[in-house]
Design goal:
With about 250 residues, this protein is α+β, with helices and mostly antiparallel strands. Strands 1-8-9-10-11-12-2-3-4-5-6-7 form a twelve-stranded antiparallel beta sheet. α1 runs parallel beside α5. The protein starts with a helix and ends in a 20-residue tail after the last strand. About 45% of the residues are buried.
Length: about 250
């Protein structure tokens, strides 16, 4: 299988980090809005408490995220006229997780890491052709030798989280000028902290409760990273039986 397949998502994450690093600064907008995400929708909501200090709740959200053992992450990104979607859930260290990657440039595939092994499933014929795999492998899991999970899925959840948090420019939050708006994300009351100087393009979403969980970070319209199921992701089982590709 070509090395391109193994590094595609990693390149995507690098592009995402580059976009987030520029949060709060003037830069060229992407061609169009990002692909629709499977994450919960966001709506405005009436405030139930006084507005919090944005720097404090964002710090609590980031600290809590770094301490978590598992998470569900959905990433939608657009750059250079191409869209990429990554839906990843599992242990923060990447030893037990599943990721579905859908990329305009390189195709669609699913990766599972469980029990010390890694498998990849190419989801359609086009993806199989681009990967140089056997035609009969479409929709079947192929074993991946060695520790290739981080390359193929863009990294373990902890690696991705560190990149996203490290890439977010916190200056506009700390300077006391951040906009704080009450919203609802999938029925959960939350605070949206955005950068008024940048037209609100750069933002973070934190739950409106004692946990102040990180729900989203992003920059409109280039990137949206949605987080959920902190420490509540079910164990991922390895593929078995007819799910596996059998070489003839």
């Amino acid at each position: 299988m070509r090395q391109t397949r193994r590094t595609t998502a990693l390149i995507t994450i690098g592009m995402v980090s580059a976009v987030l690093t520029g949060c709060g600064s003037e830069e060229k907008k992407p061609d169009a809005a990002p692909a629709s995400s499977s994450a919960a929708t966001t709506t405005s909501a009436a405030p139930t408490t006084s507005k919090p200090d944005p720097s404090k709740i964002v710090k609590q959200a980031f600290d809590g995220a770094k301490a978590a053992k598992a998470v569900h992450v959905v990433i939608d990104f657009q750059g250079d006229g191409k869209k990429s979607h990554i839906d990843m859930a599992g242990a923060m260290d990447g030893n037990n997780m599943k990721a579905v990657v859908k990329d305009d440039s390189t195709g669609n595939y699913e990766v599972i890491a469980a029990g010390g092994s890694t498998w990849m499933k190419l989801l359609d014929k086009t993806s199989v052709d681009k990967a140089g795999a056997s035609a009969g492998a479409t929709g079947k899991f192929l074993p991946v030798k060695g520790d290739k999970m981080k390359n193929m899925a863009g990294g373990a959840p902890k690696d991705l989280l560190d990149k996203f948090i490290g890439a977010v420019n916190m200056d506009w939050i700390k300077n006391g000028k951040a906009s704080v708006e009450p919203i609802t994300v999938g029925g959960v009351k939350a605070w949206k902290i955005s950068d008024p100087a940048g037209g609100g393009a750069a933002y973070a979403v934190v739950s409106d409760d004692s946990k102040n969980e990180l729900l989203e970070v992003g920059k409109v319209p280039a990137i949206k990273v949605a987080f959920s199921q902190w420490d509540a992701v079910a164990t991922i089982a390895p593929p078995t039986g007819d799910q596996l590709f059998k070489q003839k």
